[in-house]
Amino acid sequence: MRFKGPAHEPTHPLALRAAVPAERTVDAFVEEFLENLNYVQGVALPRSTINDQYLALAMTVRRYLMTDWMNTARRRRGAPSKMVGYLSAEYLLGRQLGNSLLAADLYDIAREAMNQCGISIDALRAQEVEPGLGNGGLGRLAACFVDSLATLDVPSIGYGIRYEYGMFRQTFVDGRQVERPDSWLFLGSPWEFPLPDRAVEIHFGGHTESTTQDGQEITRWLPAWNVQAIPYQLMVPGYRNGVANTLRLWSARATREFDLHIFNSGDYEEAVRAQTFAENITKVLYPEDSTPQGKELRLQQQYFFVAASLKDYIEQTLPDDFDLHNLPDQIIWQLNDTHPVIAIPELMRLLVDEYGLPWEEAWDITSRCFAYTCHTLLPEALEVWSVDILGRLLPRHLEIIYRINDEFLESVRERFPGDEDRVRRMSIIQENPRAVRMAYLATVVGTKVNGVAELHSQLLRDKVLPDFSEMWPEKFTNVTNGITPRRFLRLSNGRLSDLITETIGEGWETDLERLRELEPYADDAAFRQRFRDVKEANKHRLRDLLITRDNFALPQGQMIDVMVKRLHEYKRQMLKLLHIVTLYEGLSTGRLTPEQVTPRTFVFGAKAAPGYFMAKEIIALINAVGKTINADDRFNEILTVAFPANYNVTLAEKLIPAADLSEQISLAGKEASGTGNMKFALNGALTIGTDDGANVEIRQLVGDDNFFLFGMSEPEVAALGEQGYVPRSFYEGNDDLRRAIDLIASGAFTDRDGSKAWTVVGDLLNNDRFMVLADYASYIEAQGRVDAAYADYESWTRSAILNVARCGFFSSDRSMHDYMARIWGIGQG
Ligand code: 26V
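Above: inputs. Below: predicted complex with 26V.
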């Protein structure tokens, strides 16, 4: 099926006019809202539920943005230029209502309109379940990037997967993580536009057949089964610029053959089973797990969405008579990590098998259409697909990968004759077990490979892909990650935003380097007071939220020290826990007097992958320590541990603006970038952090005086590893550390059952892959500097203001400009 719009141009003048926006007045807004409530929801205001009202409000905002959306599409069709296809298996979008109101500049009108209807707009915003279609930083980065692309009016489209169930909802039962399904679609999502008539068919399995025609070998793929990919479109509004881009998410549905099969066959149950099987493909987001291998369904998801996206673009976006040789002038596909890398053999297959291009020409095109972003340094996180699984699911793609590899290894042999060791190292196919290294495939074929922060890109070149960077140094580049200042400052921190606007004027939301103009105000006592008032008010807002959300009363007047991110050993939540236990142990035994301890609330937010045993043990331990400390009335005024369950974008928006201290304490060389670190600094928290990921750049920008650096550097980590790391020697050599660990191991926090604490502690003593114990002393020393600095609250505030003023670099708008200049070859923005 090829959908190309109407065969005849419409003749009625109304059908031809450009979309007209609705009037931007409170009255018009109220009218539109009631109209939606009555005629879309089918209820009258007095009988409407809060969900009815939320849906009607969303529909109303959507109506205003829709004209931008249609006009953007129309304008781009009129002046086609090279575009970006962002391929990502994850988009962690966060709630849409507030962001849409902000982008459309309708917030004040909507608030007043709702007031006049007797409705609290905040209550309606709270009704929205965020689409959590991602695991963590990688998915949120994709959401920030599409926001910036729209704000910069870059012709682009985001492609992804419409998971029916996104990131699981985390609850704690006896302090242990329990996962519940995230049924974000249950009450209806007003933001998506399903387009079932634009479905494309995606094939799987079967086998290939080769024949020779006129001396040419022709290969045909004879798949065994297929599913339909239904596109769901979401608007991505730019910030007050009349632009809306598209996010196209694919949902799997059984093909009509299944229906027919059900109808015709007597085996009704079997037919329904087959249907369920097809629809399982987009049922659930895979939690980034401890073992990425052997997840056939995950490979199905990956192929499903990229095959649908390529087909959608080639068949439905390009003109019918398009010469595919010119494809690289029309589109660059950005591969967000290895998840969409199967798009490479898919494009080769389309060009060679379906469009009949010679292999060499197809290769020339394909090798200019893709660029690859790597988001990790951990070897176990680099995706590989067993040849068995890949060959069973995508036999033709496996053949294509083999041929790419053969030709590539030939070129390695030419360049490095006799170096078979290198050939083995660089092969896209790994031996024992035989598997396809997706990062290598992307590196070999892509025009560019980038890391996500300076240090990460350097380590990527030198340690992860050294042979490749030696072969093609020009392929490698860096683009430091960024965050959208719209959501993570303007929307989430209205008070600070207002103070900024009052001080330096408007426009900083789209030109974040302008925050530099705040620098002189760091020395202005009156400004500092106002800045502190903002922080205080944000703490109150967080307090209110945690009382209703978690029935947790955040104490007042304590430093708020926050570590929020996925639970992973390399991120070292345990380091922070050891600091807490050290303070508690010191206070309990009287070695520390209360006066020596800065009153703090230690906040954690973290989900563990359901299959990641150690991460779940750490969560249980944090909760156990928190329970004991919070219940100990002796230290109520000094130490508090808060671990609100189900950390997500919505909670981040409340937590980050309230934070005084941001914990970015991964082992150097392990965190590719981090983006939470940027959000905290931009909201005026100071960072305690290692020289890792984007921390390096944050520290360079804000200055050593305004950043608490600790821990080994990456070369020191490497050296200690080589020399043979013995964690127990650090335990034995540091009294505070020994006492903290002994206290945990004694069972003091786990109802006197020491064995429960032993898994975590035992691993630290005997293994400690991420060198928590080696960095402990340095961390405790840095926390001492934090306390000392906090004691001088004027100077602390000064540093916080300078953090805000100097972090404009971390706008994702800047990241997008860098991608355009260094990777996409797109000139303007
Ligand atoms: C995946 C896995 C799967 C197997 C077990 C261990 C493991 C560890 C990490 C990952 C995540 C890999 C991809 C990822 O999410 N990277 C994150 O990307 C962010 C955006 O670039 C970046 O800020 C984070 O530092 C990086 O961890």
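Residues 136-138, 141, 288, 290, 292, 337, 375-376, 378, 380-381, 452, 481, 671-675, 693 surround 26V (CB under 6 Å).
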